[in-house]
UniProtKB/TrEMBL annotation:
Species per Swiss-Prot/TrEMBL record: Lactobacillus colini
Source domain of life: Bacteria
Protein name according to UniProt: SuB0782 undefined product 764400:764714 forward MW:11955
Length: 98
C-alpha cells in the first residue's frame, strides 16, 4: 500500500522517511550549480535557484535546491541545513533548504 501524502508538496516528514537524522551529511559539490528559468522551451538568463550534491551513509547521493547561492564548505565536509524539506514525485525524492 502506498503512503498517502497530505498535499504532495515539500515537508519535513519526507526528509525523516528518506534520510537518517542521526547520521552526518557530507558535501560532494565544489560549487553550487545555477538553475535557470525556461520560457517557450528556451533557457533564459534568469537564475531561479542553485543545486548542490550531498551524501549520507546508507543513501544514494542526492541534490538539494537552494533559493539563494549557498556558501559551500570544502569538498567532503560535514554539513547541516536550515529548513531541509523533501518532496516525493512518483518514485523520486527532491530536497530543498535555505
Amino acid at each position: 500500500m502506498r503512503k498517502r501524502r497530505f498535499n504532495g508538496g515539500y515537508s519535513k516528514e519526507v526528509v525523516k522517511e528518506n534520510l537518517f537524522i542521526e547520521k552526518h551529511i557530507i558535501n560532494l559539490s565544489k560549487v553550487a550549480v545555477p538553475q535557470y528559468r525556461w520560457e517557450n522551451s528556451e533557457r533564459t538568463s534568469d537564475v531561479i535557484g542553485y543545486k548542490s550534491w550531498f551524501i549520507q551513509e546508507g543513501t544514494d547521493p542526492f541534490e538539494v535546491k537552494f533559493e539563494t547561492k549557498p556558501t559551500l564548505p570544502p569538498f567532503l565536509s560535514e554539513v547541516s541545513f536550515d529548513d531541509l524539506e523533501g518532496c516525493e514525485v512518483r518514485s523520486n525524492v527532491y530536497f530543498r533548504a535555505k
